[in-house]
Specification:
Strand content: 5-15%
CATH superfamily of the largest domain: Winged helix-like DNA-binding domain superfamily/Winged helix DNA-binding domain
Shape: globular
Strand order of the largest sheet: 1-3-2
CATH topology of the largest domain: Arc Repressor Mutant, subunit A
Number of strands: 3
Helix content: 55-70%
Order of helices and strands: HEHHEEHHHH
Number of domains: 2
Largest sheet: 3 strands, antiparallel
Radius of gyration: 20 Å
Amino acid sequence: MARRGAALEVAVLGLLHDAPMHGYELRKQLNVLLGWGRVLSYGTLYPCLKALGAAGYIVADESAAPEGRSRRTRIVYRLTAEGKEHFAQSLEESGPSAWDDESFGVRFAFFARTDRASRVRILEGRRSRLEERLDTVRRSAQRGRERADAYTAELQRHGLESVEREISWLTDLIDRERSGGITNDDEK
């Protein structure tokens, strides 16, 4: 699952796992899932849907538009049994591609469907990746400190603090997973 767009495929399969959806609704849900900083275009979504259909993971059913709406039919996408199996297998993958910035958030959104051992491996891998990145950025910032203007230094400080916060958050999650997992009571 290391290829580009794999995170989008997991997100689409995960959302369709919950309920069949038409393209417009799927795009709205994906934009919520992928976060405020990313807006998914139809030019990205529909090729993904086409590829998932060609692989046999989803099917497209035409349905009549709801009463009072246009006469056009809507295409509703739903997961196949193969799609459900592929989605489950994708969530269990816990190697380096699961730790990347692009796919980590999507995988994390579906952690409730992932076994605890896989969750811990993914969280530990992500933390390790960020610790390496943090070390590299700190060394780089120290070397360039005398050449950086105040705004560049602030941007570097912001980046370092963001990564440090994520590492702390991951450490907390790992500890909670090891002691029994995260429950809905943890959210209160």
